[in-house]
Design brief:
Shape: globular
Number of helices: 9
Structural class: alpha+beta
Helix content: 25-40%
Number of strands: 13
Strand content: 5-15%
Radius of gyration: 22 Å
Largest sheet: 7 strands, antiparallel
């Protein structure tokens, strides 16, 4: 989500006006994402957002989409097409949950990504009321794909968190490199161009600091942005829905963006591989089947392996010091936790040496995972079973102790109803 698009395209839509807002009809009618459902409720008058000003409208939209203001992270680098509305004194807010991402550049439009469980991300923009009120208008767009589809997202429409060296004006120094960061990134490489609130001990990151050009080189003060707990010295925080840009929220955001991208890739690649298999069988006048064979089976195994590695936090950076974030975010994040009878959950934070106590992603409960084609979902479950029962203790999974594997397996056995039958056996 580090770069988002603000230009909008009206996709085979008609526009109808009411006294309060414009309805851009039909382009999302076939979508099953939270934004489409919100807009349908808005049209029907079942959702009535505050329209007195932009901040109130954003708060209403977040509440309808079940996004906590405590999930707010703030990016000050000019890495969006809303660059004129973004700088270190006016950063862009990013809010998120498991099904939706919202970006708000003050004075600009609201950028929203809704996750359709079947097709992946859908990109929208929502115009906001001015100081005197106005008519919000929701539009779909494909222009965001110029940044949100490519090598940085695994070739599928997706999300990303970027770290760049940024000058005091907010202009990124892209000739110094640009990193897409995730749970495997050292903290020292993360969050260039972002504000970060929270404590992290002796660890250092790129947040809260600006790069200085010194001839052909740049200088960067890691100490200046370390262990910042308030952003009041940077900009007026009262203009925002939350006062900070929580370090734990940023860590969760990085993991989740990559997980969503891998689920999207797995779903699309599986469907395409099976479609090619059916076409080949039809041409050869063979029985047509959706049981994966040959190249389709290879694709599914490859996708399942990629998903399982990310689910189990393979390669996760080991924290050298404890991370302390905002309890409000952690409480909001855990509000929809799925727990066992004895209280264990995949949303239990660890934050001393790693992000979570039980290293299997909570995204296994997401609508995107649930909607995966059966062939790849069953392949994922088989690989998970091999790893969690200790049949596969290869180098990629050596970070999981026998006790942690057992805990994860027990949590899934108690909380996932669609596990294959052999999950009850060692």
């Amino acid at each position: 989500m580090a770069r988002t698009c603000t230009a909008v395209v009206l996709m085979t839509a008609s526009v109808a006006w009411t006294d309060d807002f414009a309805i851009v009809e039909r382009p999302w009618a076939a979508s099953n994402d939270p934004v489409a459902r919100m807009w349908q409720r808005w049209q029907l008058g079942e959702f009535k957002p505050a329209l007195s000003n932009a901040k109130a409208c954003v708060a209403s939209v977040l509440a309808e989409l079940k996004l906590s203001p405590a999930s707010q992270t703030l990016v000050f680098s000019k890495t969006s097409l809303q660059n004129s509305a973004i700088d270190p004194q006016s950063p862009r807010s990013v809010f998120f949950n498991e099904e939706c991402y919202v970006g708000w550049a003050q004075g600009g439009v609201l950028e929203i990504i809704g996750m359709d469980p079947e097709t992946g991300p859908r990109f929208y923009s929502l115009t906001l009321p001015g100081a005197g009120g106005g008519r919000p208008e929701l539009r779909t767009t494909e222009l965001c794909l110029s940044c949100h589809q490519g090598p940085r997202t695994g070739g599928v429409p997706g999300m990303l968190v970027r770290s760049v060296y940024t000058g005091e004006s907010g202009q990124p120094m892209l000739n110094e490199g640009s990193l897409v960061t995730g749970h495997d990134s050292p903290l020292r490489d993360r969050w260039g161009g972002w504000y970060v609130t929270g404590k992290h001990g002796t660890e250092r990151h790129r947040g809260n600091s600006f790069a200085q050009r010194r001839g052909p080189r740049i200088s960067f003060d890691y100490e200046a942005g370390a262990n910042v707990t308030t952003l009041e010295r940077y900009f007026p925080t009262e203009r925002y829905l939350a006062p900070g840009s929580d370090i734990v929220a940023l860590m969760v955001l990085e993991h989740q963006c990559a997980m969503h991208n891998k689920l999207t890739d797995a779903a699309r690649s599986t469907r395409e591989a099976l479609a090619r298999q059916r076409e080949a069988q039809q041409r050869a006048k063979e029985p047509v089947t959706d049981v994966p064979q040959g190249s389709a089976l290879a694709v599914i195994h490859e996708q399942a392996e990629a998903v399982v590695r990310h689910l189990l936090f393979c390669g996760e950076y080991a924290l050298k010091d404890a991370v302390i974030g905002d309890p409000a975010y952690q409480e909001a994040f855990r509000r929809n936790r799925v727990a066992t009878k004895d209280g264990r959950s995949l949303k239990d934070f660890e934050l001393r040496t790693r992000l979570f106590q039980h290293r299997c992603s909570y995204m296994i409960y997401s609508r995107g995972f649930e909607a995966l084609p059966s062939a790849v979902k069953q392949a994922i479950y088989r690989r998970l079973h091999d790893v969690l029962t200790g049949k596969d203790q290869g180098g990629s999974f050596a970070h999981l102790s026998a006790a942690e594997r057992r805990n994860i397996r027990e949590i899934l056995q108690e909380t996932k109803a669609d596990l294959p039958g052999d999950w009850g056996r060692e």
